[in-house]
Structure formats: structure tokens, C-alpha cells
Amino acid sequence: MDRISGLSDELLVKILLFVPTKVAVSTSILSKRWEYLWMWLPKLDYEDKAKIEHRSYSSELRTGKMNSRRSITTPRNQRLLLFLDRNLPLHRAPVIESFRLELYGSYLTPENVKMWVVIALSHCLRELDILYESYPPSKPIVLPSNLFTCKSLSVLKLDGDIILDVPRMVSLPSLKTLQLQSVTYSKDETLQRLLYNCPVLEDLMLHLRDYGDTMQKVTVVVPSLLSLLLCIPYGHDIQGFVIDTPNLKYFKLVDDNDKSHYCLIEHMPNLIEAHLDVSLTHIKSLIGSITSVKRLTICSRVIYFTFIFDEGFVFNRLEHLKVCICNDHSSNQLFRLLKSSSILQELNLFSMEDHEPQGMDDWNEPSTVPECLLSSLQTLSWSTYTGEPQERDIVVYILKHALHLKTARIKSYESANGFVSFSEMDRISGLSDELLVKILLFVPTKVAVSTSILSKRWEYLWMWLPRLEYGHKDCSEPESKRLQCFLDRNLPLHRAPVIESFHLELDNSVFKPENIKMCVVNAVYHSVRELEIVYESYSAKPNILPSNLYTCISLVILKLDGEILLDVPRMVSLPSLKTMKLQKVRYFNEEILQQLLSSCPVLEDLVVDLDEEDTTRKLTVVVPSLQSLSLVIPWSNDIYGFVMDTPALKYFKLVDDNQKSHYCLIEHMPNLIEAHLDIAFPDIKSLIGSITSVKRLSICSWVIYFTFIVLFM
User: Per the UniProt record, which residue ranges are transmembrane (predicted)?
Assistant: First the structure.
């Protein structure tokens, strides 16, 4: 059965859009119905298949192996010419959405192309894309004047041997994208006149011709422009350029012309991303115009680039920086940029395509550390690291001072002979102990400890680690015994003055409460800032933490999970504690939690996940400073009720699966932003009344008369 015959012409035309225009045209031989169906196509793409011959001919012509008078006109060229001349005037689509021509060779005359464009324009053309290259060089194409008054045109792309001769009357009210590659401009004012009459232009690409173009001054003044790419090749005889694009968000400038020329660019306050690859000497205006950028990729071959920053330029929004290090003065550029970028988060050192790394010059350590290293830098990438002393010093400096660094990726430079070998030199021996400890932080504690067998120097280096993580969920009994012996022997000898975090995860009864108690005592002695204990044991006696934990001035984060008995002494003071998570722990009595919370004056984040067998009947959370609270009450917990008074709370999560009747007294939360409620208990009037200021609410209530409560609120 011929199912396709049952489809409408409109649908068949849409199907033809999924195949190349040449294939769509070939369907005309199928039947009488298909003969002219392709003529309704709104998108036409004609490509000269002689382009391979053309490129081969061009190569032979440049090397002198062929007579320059020879033409590459073929019967195939002539067929395309005749086909367009005969069929394009008969095209039936009322609107041509896009018309693309890719033409090579000298068989065409400018009049041919000019006529085809005129016909396309008569169909309310929206996108025009012409690529034309002629060898040997013939008369270039001059586009028809009515192109520059086309109201429907929104995309214009011109590439190759085309002369841009803009008439006095220009109006392109719909043009949003303009790409001009290697075209020739009839006058210096041609481009400026064209851009001035594109009131909604957003995307502009200008790739100047290497040789043969006489335009010496480039002026881009477009208030609506959002994206600009300007490429000035080495051979273009340019005097300078002016750019005024106040709304620009993306800017790419490739200026390979090392002849002296001016550069006047107005500030771009909305700039998000910039890509600069420049040889020009006068770049003060350029750097000043991009100080609002967020993402910057830069390569400057200007020797006195660093002196420009003495003018006081500051990149106060720059978060991502990529620096090409193909010049011997790259190190000075790098640190000038770092000093000017106070909130930088990511630094990438690399070489742009076709840029060969030359090795850095002698580098002097700056007198002051760049602010971004101390406060914000999180990621360092270096893809062309050669291991030269200057580069090694820079890596050491960054790793030493980047206090918030999370990720560092350093790859050797791949030269023509393969990767550079570092085996003949023990480069790591030249690093300081302080830096080696920072490197050890990137590996698990167990791996860091294993480095103690490397040499005498490494034997105790791991003992300076400020972050310690021992054990895991599936730790076997023999592993646990070895770990217990290791901790008993080594933890009292730990040398770090401050332990930033101490994580202990144990899953069997090998560890006795006394062992864990001693570990915590040692951690507190080293001014621990974050303590996390996960303890699952089948023994009857739960772990009781030492009393000095509850008077630890340095403790900021406390996370307890499992068989731990919370027995808070009378003297409690945790002045720095901001985060506390209590999951499945047990409470010595009902007042313990309240007593603990009342001694945490700056607590902001609290998680209380009650154990199913816990005997706590009354839960009280009164914390004025609290901003986030998660409370989980299991179905089997024998609870009487809970009281909450947290006026500064912003995030609230309550999962109450207990269907037994219990009270719920919650004070209003005027600053609440988000709440998540999953509740089964019947008395929810107080709960609903407390969250009426919420902005985002997720709710599941099992209560049958929930609607009545809301009605009477």
C-alpha cells in the first residue's frame, strides 16, 4: 500500500526539508504530482560540487604547477548554472526562509548571482548565505541594491569574492545576524553605513580580507549588538578601529596585525565573555573596555602589557580566566591579571591553537599575594606544563597560597617527539613540606599515610594533615582491629596544630566506646573544627562522647550518626557551632537536646532524625539564630509532642510518620522561604499557622480534615 500518497502536499514539503535540496529536486521524476512539489520548499541550499577540483586547482596555482589561465569550468558547473537560471524564477514558495549558495570557479558571472539574489528577495527572504571563490580571479560579485532595503531579512552571511557596495538608501529593520568574511568593501564608510541602518542587529562577525581590501578604518557603533567577532589578519593594511557597543555580552578579537594602529573601544558594562588574541601595541583602551567581563581568554604579545595594569584596571566581576602562555613574558601578564581579579574562581593556563609555548621568563615572587588566591580560587588547570624551573616556581606559589583550591589539573606539554620526560629529575624533592602536605590533601588519608614508607623525609609528613578520614561502611573486622591499633598509637602524636575535619566511620563492635572517646579527646585537643562520627554496633553499650567535646571553642560542625548516647554535662559552651546533625542517636533524657541547643548561640543548620527505639517523649527546639531545620519522627517512636521557636528560620523540613496523637506547638516563622512537610499526625493547626509566610511549599498530609483546618485559619 502506498501510504505516502495519502499525505497532503504541505506535509510532503515538510518531509523534503529533511533531505538536501539536490535530493528533494530529484523527486520530481517520481510522478506528475511530485514534478513541482520541491518548488514549494522554503529552504534552498545549492552547493557547487566542483569545490574539490577548485581547491586542488588553487593549490597547484600557488605552487606554480599549472597555467593560471586554465579554467576549471566543467559540465557539472554549467548544469547548476542552467538549472538555477531556469527554475529559480519559477519557485512557488511565498516565503524563502533561507537561500544558500556555495560557489567555486570562474564559470559564473556576477550577473548570474545578482539575478538569483533578486529572485530570492522577491519571496520575502529571511536568511541569505553566499560563499563565492573564483580561481583564477575574475570580476567579484556586486550584490543588488534592493538587498539593502529588504524588510524581511534577518540573517545575512557573505564570504569570499564579493564587493560590498552599500547604496545611500539602506534599511534592514529585521536584520539580527550579519557575518562578513573576506569580502571587499568599496569604501571605508561602507561598513559604518550598513551597520547604522540595522537597528536590531545582535550578532556581528567581521573577518577582514588578508590582502586586496582597501578599508583601513573599521568603525562598529551598534547599540543593540550582543555578540561581536572581529578578526584582523596579518596582511591587512589597517590604520585602526573604533568600537562602541554598550550592550555587548560576547566579544572576540583576533588581531594578528603587528603594525602600529589605533584601538578605541568604549566600555562594555554588560560583557559576560571575551576572547582576545592580539598583537597590537596600543591596548589600554581595549583592557579598559572589558573590565566588567566574567569569563576572559587572553593572549597578548605586547611586551609592556604589564605596565597597562599600573593604570589601576580592576576586573571586579571576573570569575573564569584563561591565559595563553606562548610568550616569554607570560608570567608577568599572569600575575598582573591575578592581582586585578579579586573574585577569580577558575584559572586555566594553556596555549591557543597554532600558538607554540616559548617558555616563561625569569619570575620574581610578588611582594603581596593576589587576593583571589587567598579568598576565591577553586580550580587550577595547566595543559602545557613543561616543568621548567620558572613554571615549577609558579605552580608551587599558587598551590601554597590558594587556600580554597579544590581541583588542580597539571598536564605536561606534548611536543613533536611526544611527552616531555621528567624522569631524570626528582622535581617533587624541591617542594617544601608545607606544599607537600597540601598535595596529600588531594588523596584519601589512607593513601597519604602510605607515603610514610617512601623515605625518612616522608615518614611523618602525613602527621601534619589538617583533614583526617578513617574507616568506611564495609570495614571488615581485621581492618577494624588494625585501624584501632593505628589510631591508638598515632593519633596522640599527630602534629597539625589544628584539625580542620575529623571523620570516623565504623561498622562493627571491634571499637569500644573507650577507643572512640579517646579519638575525640585527641581531636578536640587539636582544636577540631568539624567532627563527624558514624558508629554502627550490635553491642548493648552505646558510645558516650567525652565531656570536653561540649566545651570545644573551635568546633563549627558536629555530625553524629548511629549508636551514640548523647549525655550532655551541665557545663556546655559551643560558641562557634553553626551546623549540627544528629541522626539515629539516643538521648540520655528529654532535657538533653534542649540543654545542648541553648548553648549554641550561632547555630544555623540543625538536623534531628530520631531513632525508632529512642525513648525521648518531648522534643523542644528553641534557637533564635537557626536558619535551616530538618526534623524526622519515625512511625514507631513513642513521642508525646514537640515545641519549636525558630523566628529566623528560612528552610524547614518536617517528616512525621507517627500517626499516634501528639501535640505540635510551633511559633510563626516570618522569614520562611521554603518548607517541606510530610505528616501523618492529626493536630496540625499550629503547624499550618506557623508557615503562612512561606514562598515555596511541598506538602503531603494524611489528615482527613486538613481542608477544614485551612478554612478556619
Answer: none
